[in-house]
Design goal:
mainly alpha
């Protein structure tokens, strides 16, 4: 029962966060419109100038957009934590008979649910412009679950950041500065073959590249005619990505809980 209490309390906090999104629909609207714009811009504007050997560019593109979007969606966790601290809501939570980790579990859980909705909308958009899943149902589900699991791990990093900084604006600016280049110095939108050697090395070991490659493989968007990657991280993208997910959770879950206790006792 002791182990289940944080989860049960976290579910209540997650419900509170989801109700908040319902009452402030602008958050959901703009977080959904942005990836749709990326899909349409890259597919119809940049896609005509980008050629990917052996495959249709739109099938190459959509898994990369998925990866970028769920990672950016995870930044809501940090902004939400910073906002709750700034408004004194964390102090109210302290007065309730609830687990200390419940606030973090609820916040990361609600943002995961938000990502599920966004990726559903993006999938429908992708299907409308010609993207197709060419693998089995089980592999496709595995691709979506891996994307969401990676985003969930990033959420815990952002939760820790949100507990460190003074305002949600700082979280948004700091996360943009880090995540934007992280998602572009990768194979999300273009192959890394023509990158300069140092940049190519970074991109191919970037976990964003591996989760994107894993999604492409699981969705069946990497035909046999596409040249095989030279790097172990992209030859075994699922294993490499799962390793990153486990590592990030092992590091940032305890760090976030510890920082929450400090923030709640200010």
């Amino acid at each position: 029962m002791t182990m289940l209490k944080p989860i049960a309390d976290g579910a209540i906090v997650a419900k509170r966060n989801l109700i908040k999104i319902k009452r402030v629909p602008d958050i959901l609207v703009f977080s959904t419109i942005s990836p749709i714009m990326f899909i349409l811009l890259f597919a119809y504007v940049f896609g005509s100038a980008i050629e990917v050997q052996g495959t249709n560019y739109r099938e190459f593109l959509i898994p990369g957009i998925f990866a970028q979007t769920v990672i950016f969606g995870a930044t809501l966790t940090g902004a939400g934590m910073a906002d709750d601290i700034k408004k004194g809501i964390i102090d109210r939570f302290r007065s309730l008979p609830m687990s200390r980790s419940a606030v973090l579990i609820g916040r990361t859980g609600s943002d995961l649910a938000n990502n599920v909705l966004i990726i559903t909308v993006m999938s429908l958009t992708g299907l409308l412009i010609g993207w197709r899943i060419r693998s089995s149902v089980g592999e496709a589900i595995g691709g979506f679950l891996l994307l969401l699991a990676f985003a969930y791990a990033i959420s815990w990093i952002m939760a820790w950041v949100g507990l460190l900084v003074p305002s949600p604006e700082v979280v948004n600016n700091a996360s943009f500065v880090v995540i934007f280049p992280l998602t572009f110095i990768a194979n999300t939108f273009v192959p890394t073959n023509n990158f300069p050697a140092p940049l190519k090395f970074v991109a191919n070991w970037n976990p964003v590249s591996s989760v994107t490659q894993a999604a492409r493989d699981l969705f069946g968007n990497t035909p046999a005619t596409v040249p095989k990657p030279d790097y172990w991280s992209l030859q075994h993208p699922v294993l490499y990505t799962v390793g990153w997910i486990v590592l990030l959770l092992l590091i940032f879950v305890p760090l976030s809980v510890r920082q929450y206790k400090k923030a709640a006792s200010r």
